[in-house]
């Protein structure tokens, strides 16, 4: 009787202290009936480029106020400060056409051929407003960015260099992890007095281009 009483009192204390070994039958009962043979599968992360620089070329149409629309081409270099903000340095080239006065007057030329050469240089700050995705099919999706951009620079036209402001918006589609295509619309503002009284010329640019991250 005494041994039984000691056993009843000592066993809970022993289990609480973790000193008692489980009985062989109990250890077998604690084992799962089926032990799954699970082998960890290594996961390979997508090799997405993390470069901050982007270089590209573009082509489009530039409406030079009073001097017709012209083919526009150029290039740009972009530095991404973060996922939202970026700096862009751009250069573009076009050629001014004839004014309405020149067409009506016949042999009268307001500008020489060399003065019709149009080029601009600017530095802009951009902001990605709506990052998202574009779905080509159910199986293909591309990362996209709708952005706003504005800045300042200079325009060489009509024999003079003019301080220029520009502002616009663009849409970027990432075709791969390092190549993207852009669609953009911008307005260029500068003062000009070639046709008489000085005024602010508003030139509209519509362009598309391809760029590469590096």
Automatic annotation (TrEMBL):
Keywords: Signal. Residues 1-27 form the signal peptide. The keyword Metal-binding does not apply. Residues 15-212 form the Outer membrane protein beta-barrel domain. Gene3D superfamilies: 2.40.160.20. This is Outer membrane protein beta-barrel domain-containing protein. It comes from Marinobacter nauticus (strain ATCC 700491 / DSM 11845 / VT8). The lineage of its organism: Bacteria, Pseudomonadati, Pseudomonadota, Gammaproteobacteria, Pseudomonadales.
């Amino acid at each position: 009787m005494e041994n039984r009483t000691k056993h009843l009192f000592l066993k809970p204390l022993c289990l609480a202290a973790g000193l008692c070994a489980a009985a062989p039958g109990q250890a077998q009962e604690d084992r799962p009936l089926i032990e799954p043979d699970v082998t960890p599968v290594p996961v390979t992360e997508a090799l997405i480029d993390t470069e901050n620089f982007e270089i590209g070329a573009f082509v489009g149409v530039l409406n030079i106020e009073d001097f017709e629309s012209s083919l526009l081409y150029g290039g740009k270099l972009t530095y991404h400060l973060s996922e939202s903000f970026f700096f862009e340095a751009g250069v573009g080239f076009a050629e001014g056409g004839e004014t309405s006065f020149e067409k009506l007057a016949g042999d009268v030329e307001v500008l020489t051929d060399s003065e019709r050469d149009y080029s601009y240089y600017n530095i802009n700050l951009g902001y990605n407003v709506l990052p998202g995705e574009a779905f080509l099919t159910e199986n293909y999706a591309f990362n996209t960015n709708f952005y706003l951009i504005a800045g300042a620079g200079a325009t060489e036209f009509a024999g003079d260099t003019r301080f220029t402001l520009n502002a616009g918006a663009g849409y970027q589609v990432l075709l791969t992890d390092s190549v993207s295509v852009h669609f953009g619309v911008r307005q260029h503002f500068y003062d000009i007095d070639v046709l008489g009284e000085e005024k602010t010329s508003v030139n509209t640019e519509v362009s598309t281009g391809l760029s590469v991250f590096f």
